[in-house]
């Protein structure tokens, strides 16, 4: 006689096996509750009605602690058990799992997220832990894309009481939002979502395209933040709006781009344009010259530095007093002449810039100075790099900074001033009433 592990338990459901079923499980669907008194279920086979299943108490109890208490507890249930809050398809999948019925549609074949939650509900309710874990793994591996994104968010809202399952599935949704190349496609569903964390994630993701798709991103961001039930503060707009103003500031540098960029007054993007201008104006930092303040960030373009800007270099904070091209006398320095070259910041080694002339003989230090021996621009090649400098004053000393220096903006040292308000033209009083008369 074979052991229990080798038994095909699915054969227990067959009348030919010889062990009859001893319990009937009726699924309490709406159709069951709407039956007329005394009306019987219509038989579809010898042993099963449309909304009922027959099973073995011992088999159900062996898998489910809930069924075990129900059938063998202090007050055992009868031979007919009503199963509420379920549907026929979900219960059949759980029953097939209990009997390990091969060749039938199970959790693996389910793609609809709501159907999976229906089965998860039963597995959780009856503590069929193996089935429960199987569905969690299904959620963990589920493919989330633009096509099923809306359905999944709707299911997450409907089955929010299953926190563990929802957290697993929600992580897949957040992963889609983070990796999707065009977050604008996700905005409409985020607007309808009741989950602020989904809205916030889409807002953050919009920052990836805000610099190139400026007005559309502004409109989408405000549509989300102003959607029904959204509790996010306006600070949630920071990432996307900073990206948008960076793109806007690049547009402002080209009149032709600005003409193409500005929407018509009747355009659906006109309000977004007004909001972008207002944000740019309110957030503008006069120290770094950007509404996306660059405080603490490295200066990459020396020629955009303004005289008077506060910067930091080598842990020293100071003010820019000369911008761009630093001038210095042209000399060739030898190692035994430790003088200072302002345009190369070299004090011990020879300056290798060709702008300082050409060596004739290095042994005696003779060289041929260039034509502009006293007008070094500070912009020249040395040791394979381009050198452009700024002069910074701190306390009573001066520092020469270059693109190779760790030169960063120090906007925190200055108070961000607001852009000047445009002067409003006084309107003439065209009141034709009593105000015109000298009473």
Short synopsis of the structure:
The chain has 14 helices and twelve strands. The strands form four sheets. Strands 11-10-5-4-12 form a five-stranded antiparallel sheet, with no helix packed on it. A three-stranded mixed sheet has the order 2-1-3. Strands 6-7 form a two-stranded antiparallel ribbon. With 439 residues, the protein is an alpha+beta fold.
Distance between the termini: 121 Å
Morphology call: elongated
Summing up helix and strand content along with how strands pair, one would put the structural category as alpha+beta
Our count of helices gives: 14
Biggest pleated-sheet summary: 5 strands, antiparallel
Mean pLDDT over the full residue set? 75
Sheet-strand content, in percent, reads 5-15%
- Radius of gyration from the alpha-carbon trace, in angstroms: 38 Å
Low-confidence stretches: 30-49, 324-352, 364-388, 416-420, 427-439
Which series of helices and strands comes N to C?
EHEHHEHHHHHHHHHHHEEEEEEEEE
The neighbouring-strand order within the major sheet is: 11-10-5-4-12
The share of residues in helices is 25-40%
Number of strand elements: 12
Structure description:
This protein is α+β, with helices and mostly antiparallel strands and 439 residues long. It is built from 14 helices and twelve strands. The chain has helices spanning 30-33, 57-63, 65-72, 88-98, 113-125, 129-141, 149-158, 163-179, 187-192, 196-206, 214-225, 238-252, 255-261, 270-283, and strands at residues 23-27, 52-55, 80-83, 310-313, 316-322, 358-361, 366-368, 380-382, 385-387, 389-394, 397-402, 407-409. The strands form four sheets. A five-stranded antiparallel sheet has the order 11-10-5-4-12, with no helix packed on it. Strands 2-1-3 form a three-stranded mixed sheet. Helix 4 crosses helix 5 and helix 8 packs parallel to helix 10.
């Amino acid at each position: 006689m074979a052991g229990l592990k080798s038994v095909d338990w699915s054969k227990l459901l067959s009348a030919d096996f010889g062990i009859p079923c001893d319990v009937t499980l009726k699924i309490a669907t709406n159709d069951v509750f709407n039956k007329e008194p005394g009306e019987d279920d219509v038989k579809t086979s010898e042993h099963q009605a449309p909304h009922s299943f027959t099973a073995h108490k011992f088999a159900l109890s062996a898998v489910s602690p809930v069924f075990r208490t129900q059938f063998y507890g202090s007050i055992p249930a009868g031979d007919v058990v009503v199963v509420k809050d379920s549907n026929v398809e979900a219960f059949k999948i759980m029953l097939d799992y209990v009997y390990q019925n091969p060749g039938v549609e199970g959790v693996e074949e389910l793609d609809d997220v709501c159907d999976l939650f229906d089965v998860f509900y039963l597995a959780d309710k009856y503590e069929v832990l193996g089935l429960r874990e199987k569905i969690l793994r299904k959620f963990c591996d589920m493919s989330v894309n633009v096509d099923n994104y809306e359905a999944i968010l709707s299911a997450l809202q409907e089955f929010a009481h299953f926190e563990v399952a929802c957290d697993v599935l929600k992580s897949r949704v957040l992963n889609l939002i983070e990796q999707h190349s065009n977050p604008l496609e996700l905005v409409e569903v985020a607007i309808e979502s009741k989950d602020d964390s989904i809205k916030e994630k889409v807002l953050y993701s919009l920052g990836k395209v805000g610099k190139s798709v400026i007005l559309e991103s502004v409109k989408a961001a405000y549509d989300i933040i102003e959607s029904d039930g959204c509790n996010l503060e306006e600070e949630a707009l920071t990432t996307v709006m900073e990206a948008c103003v960076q793109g806007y500031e690049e547009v402002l540098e080209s009149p032709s781009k600005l003409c193409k960029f500005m929407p018509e007054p009747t355009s659906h993007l006109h309000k977004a344009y007004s909001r972008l201008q207002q944000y740019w104006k309110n957030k503008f930092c006069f120290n770094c010259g950007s509404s996306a303040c660059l405080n603490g960030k490295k200066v990459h373009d020396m020629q955009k530095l303004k005289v008077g800007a506060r910067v930091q270099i080598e842990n020293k904070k100071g003010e820019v007093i000369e911008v761009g091209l630093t001038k210095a006398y042209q000399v060739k320095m030898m190692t035994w002449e430790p003088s200072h070259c302002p345009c190369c910041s070299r004090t011990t080694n020879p300056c290798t810039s060709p702008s300082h002339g050409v060596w004739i003989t290095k042994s005696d230090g003779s060289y041929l100075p260039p034509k502009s021996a006293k007008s070094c621009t500070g912009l020249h090649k040395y040791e394979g790099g381009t050198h452009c400098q700024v002069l910074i004053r701190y306390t009573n000393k001066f520092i020469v900074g270059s693109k190779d220096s760790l030169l960063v903006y120090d906007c925190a040292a200055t108070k961000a001033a607001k852009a000047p308000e445009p002067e409003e033209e006084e309107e003439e009083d065209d009141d034709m009433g009593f105000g015109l008369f000298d009473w």
